[in-house]
């Protein structure tokens, strides 16, 4: 899972000006409705289980709503059978939308699900996870962290819940990871003093209970654009970057948290201390502990590096190893998923005339499948960016934003594709998850 958001002025680097301007979340979006090859029809039963019907005559449904939209910041979680994709809409800044996609690549909610109807405040970028019984979606408002719950059948369970007061910034995405019916949410708190804060959310049949935590109290000039969280070996790992070490170059830190809320590393674990600026990061649990990936400027451009963190908090390779090498362009916004052994690392490549999504497979010994990764977006749009990826039932599922123009497109849509364990795409063209006729028109010109 990847957590991030970007805003103009958050950084000052040369190419970042283009990136931040073109990833702004204040416009609108939509997608093509080209017919896709027939897929087996999955029917959800009242029990929550599903049947797959071999109906070769029926094509997958596309999104049926037609309101022009700027859909961005897709986040994905899986219950093992279906994925829930959550995004926000720049044309309706208070709303968060969602749709489920079956493991067969079928869009189950053509009209989409509205998670926070009649919002009173603008919604920050969302994060989503599955706790064994339901999906939990969290996002920041101006003074509160909000929670929505979605059942596997697509039912939104009850009203939106404000679960904790914050001094946050909606531009910084919270992170969330879950074990059985217990989730840790983490975020950057911009109060005085600045801190990395967290809340344990414990679900039960009649509601949720919460426990507030301080994960790091010495955070300075937070620069990670999100605070990702992962679960492995009976503990959470929370990661971020800040400039606490006395210069202006952000470094990568982390802390481990037990399932009952004990913070094991209150001063933080220094993950990497190389000369480059370390920003835009993600973390995923593996059978060996955790894997962390980040965008690093040590070679001048922004390249993706990664390293492992053991359950005891040790970092065998503090320098990290290269996942991508770009010329020209920058590699940013990593998102990770793991089958337990190998990690699929994905990222957005920001070039001078195209944004695209690439990936690489990382083995437990730190070797990668190829020096510069492989393409994961289908290239139908010149702007394919902001991906998130999960592993489910022997394959991966990735959702991402797409638009026919790089520089501040007026409309943008969410697409998705399944990815095989060897990194090859399953769905070509991609699954259409959100929709806007304006994007179709621009793509056809």
- Which parts are unreliable, with pLDDT below 50 for 5 consecutive residues or more? 3-18, 24-59
Q: Please give the largest β-sheet.
A: 4 strands, antiparallel
Q: What is the strand content?
A: 35-45%
- The beta-strand count equals 30
Spatial order of the strands forming the largest sheet: 3-4-5-6
* Helix and strand composition category: mainly beta
- Helix count equals 2
Radius of gyration: 20 Å
Give the overall average pLDDT: 83
List keywords for this structure.
445 residues, mainly beta, 4-stranded antiparallel beta sheet, 2 helices, 4% helix, 44% strand, disordered N terminus
Description of the molecule:
With 445 residues, the chain is mainly beta. It contains two helices and 30 strands. Helices cover 4% and strands 44% of the residues. A hairpin with an 8-residue loop joins β16 and β17. The longest helix has 9 residues. The chain is globular and about 50 Å long.
Question: How are the elements arranged and paired?
Answer:
Blueprint: H1 14-22, E1 41-44, E2 50-53, E3 71-78, E4 82-89, E5 96-102, E6 113-114, E7 127-130, E8 135-140, E9 144-150, E10 161-165, E11 175-179, E12 182-189, E13 195-204, E14 207-216, E15 229-232, E16 235-242, E17 251-258, E18 269-272, E19 278-286, E20 289-299, E21 301-309, E22 321-322, E23 330-338, E24 343-350, E25 355-362, E26 374-375, E27 383-392, E28 395-403, E29 413-419, E30 431-432, H2 437-444
Antiparallel strand pairs: 1-2, 3-4, 4-5, 5-6, 7-8, 8-9, 9-10, 11-12, 12-13, 13-14, 15-16, 16-17, 17-18, 19-20, 20-21, 21-22, 23-24, 24-25, 25-26, 27-28, 28-29, 29-30
